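tool=predict chain=A
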Amino acid sequence: METRIKEKKEIAPDVFHIVLDHKLDFKPGQYISLKFFENGLPIVRPYSIASLPGEDIELCIALVEGGKFSDHLKVLNEGDNIEFLGPFGKFVLEGDPKDVTFIAGGTGITALRSMIKTLLKKGADVRLFFGFRTPEYYLFREDFEKMVNEYENFSLIPAISRPEETTNEWSGEVGRLNEVLPKYARKGREYYICGHGSFIDSIVTTLFDLGILEENIHKEAWS
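tool=predict ok
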């Protein structure tokens, strides 16, 4: 399916917020695949959907040095057409959870953002741990801080892992999330995790050490 790029904005170094002019019915947590052709051959890349079902599709895309799709995205502008497939994916909310902790690393926040917004509207108790290198990589910061003020049932715990790489002030947690989690994690909640494979492994190990059961852990890793 072809649609138009409605908005393209750099929201962190080499990370772009893309809005497509297409409203899509999907399950929070799913993704679409963007597609273009190079020398007559299709190049397809999956990206999680950050918006709610029925809204314009929002994506958060980190450019990769030398990546074919990254090079293509650099030259695309607002108003240009782009092709997508989907939605796809089985990393979705299971049942109707009432007490949920989300744990995101970097652009892994994209898939979780839609889930979080969905559950907050339903009145679930939601907690978000969001880890990133420095404050400059705090994706959707204004949006999440607004949610804290809007929803009493939302708790936000952001953490930076590389404080030595920034000169900006920071009042949140410092350290990797597997180091921060033990201060807050508790049993009786569902845990949804999204991020790089090694990030997922460290978080799952920490949750197991804290006594969280495997049946309460849901994860989606990207390479």
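The longest helix spans residues 109-122. The longest strand covers residues 2-12.
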